[in-house]
Amino acid sequence: MKRWNVVITGFGTVGKQAARLLAQRQGYYREKYDADVRLVGAVRSTSGLYDVNGLGEEALLEWGAAGKRGDSTFSGCEFLASSHADILIETGPSDLKTGGPGLTYIKQALEQGMHAIAVSKGALVVDYAGLSALAKQKGVNLKISGATAAALPTIDLLQYNFAGCQILGIEGVFTGTTNFVLTKMMEEGITSEEAILRAQQMGIAEPDPSFDIDGWDTACKVTILANAAFDAQVKLSDVSRASVREVTDEQIASWKAAGLTPKLIGSIQKTPQGIKAAVELQAVDAAHPFATVKGTTKAVRVETDVMGELLVIGGKSDPVAAAAAALKDLEHIIRGQRAY
Ligand SMILES: NC(=O)c1ccc[n+]([C@@H]2O[C@H](COP(=O)([O-])OP(=O)(O)OC[C@H]3O[C@@H](n4cnc5c(N)ncnc54)[C@H](OP(=O)(O)O)[C@@H]3O)[C@@H](O)[C@H]2O)c1
Question: Residues that bind NADP(+), according to the entry (predicted)?
């Protein structure tokens, strides 16, 4: 039986769910793939836990609880270097300017021949091309489902299902929170502030909702997808961006009167001038498939040269789904599927 040692960097909401699902699926991996998958290390901002035989649930729970600190010697890149793990799952903060700790961890992991699974977006936004080249050079995978709409298949759809096709363009409702806010404004006639507050009360929006509401989350996803699936060199600053905060009551009233539905749409198009990525507020008519995409539901529509158009709607938008997307990547690695 092949042994797979896993390390998780960032042990917050998503990291903890990834550890929980991993523990739950150990028997399944053994039976289905003859694979002994163990979480041997986890790292938070100032401490970590490590056990070469696999971390027990109790130790993880205690350490993961707020205020509990583990061993401060198990932190940072030195820890990663000495862990001798096979797979890194990166679920730390998304720093869009520098790539943050995620960029350092992913680089270090790839350098030492580990596969890397990114759920955080910072490293991918800042240097997807560099990381992808490094992964290829080392013969390992860099997988990014968790960072590119998670439960909604986007990168797998583009890299596997349309292999050999030319992707002419994609558009999507990539952020559940913004779609929830727009849906509530349309259906209940409440203001954007009220709808954002509602989303926060329901745990859908973060205490600081700007990352989602102001279009950054969608802009990150289209930047990463453009670079990963179209081999483009799009920078986050190249992507035009719209905010749901700007939507007024008057706009809502006029869209309702005209039978239109507002959506925050991220798009990537092949144009004669090159790849164009954008995040726009669009009012779509009832015939548009995104008109029926309500609440936190997401959707993606892909146009290809010879396979025609494909539409996918659905996928949960929550930390469990994000962790599950990372484990989908892990399973593809165990099966030996290489991402290019
Ligand atoms: N939440 C979602 O549904 C979702 C969905 C898709 C993608 N994501 C992305 O996934 C990432 C994690 O999200 P989350 O909601 O789990 O965030 P979170 O709850 O804030 O957790 C972040 C974790 O990162 C740790 N951290 C901070 N600096 C670190 C460092 N230098 N080294 C190692 N760990 C460090 C924190 O440590 P402490 O515990 O010590 O503070 C914390 O455990 C984010 O980048 C987010 O954009 C989230």
Answer: 10-15
Q: What is the pLDDT of residues 16-48, one digit of tens each?
A: 999 999 999 999 999 999 999 999 999 999 888
Domain annotation covers residue 196:
yes
144-159 pLDDT, tens per residue? 999 999 999 999 999 9
How many C-beta atoms surround the C-beta of residue 55 within 10 A? Answer: 23
How many distinct structural domains can be found in the chain? Answer: 2
CA distances from 241 to 47, 215, 274, 303 (A): 37, 6, 18, 22
> Hey, is 61 helix, strand or coil?
helix
What is the arithmetic mean of pLDDT over 291-318?
Answer: 97
> What residues make up the domain containing 64?
2-151+320-334
Pocket perturbation via mutation, ligand 1, pick of 7, 8, 9, 13 by most ligand atoms within 8 A of CB: 13
Q: Is the CB of 100 under 6 A from ligand 1?
A: no
**12 CA distance to ligand 1 middle (Å):** 5
Give the separation between CA 210 and CA 216, rounded to whole angstroms.
Answer: 8
Catalytic site residue 221? yes
Give the residue whose CA is nearest to atom 29 of ligand 1: 45
pTM score: 0.96
Residue 35 is assigned to a structural domain of this protein: yes
Pairing of strands 87-90, 115-118: parallel
Nearest CA to ligand 1 atom 39: 44
Query: Ligand 1 centre and the CA of 270: distance in Å?
Result: 33
Give ∠ CA 243-249-252 in degrees, rounded to 5: 80
Q: Are residues 269 and 127 in the same domain?
A: no
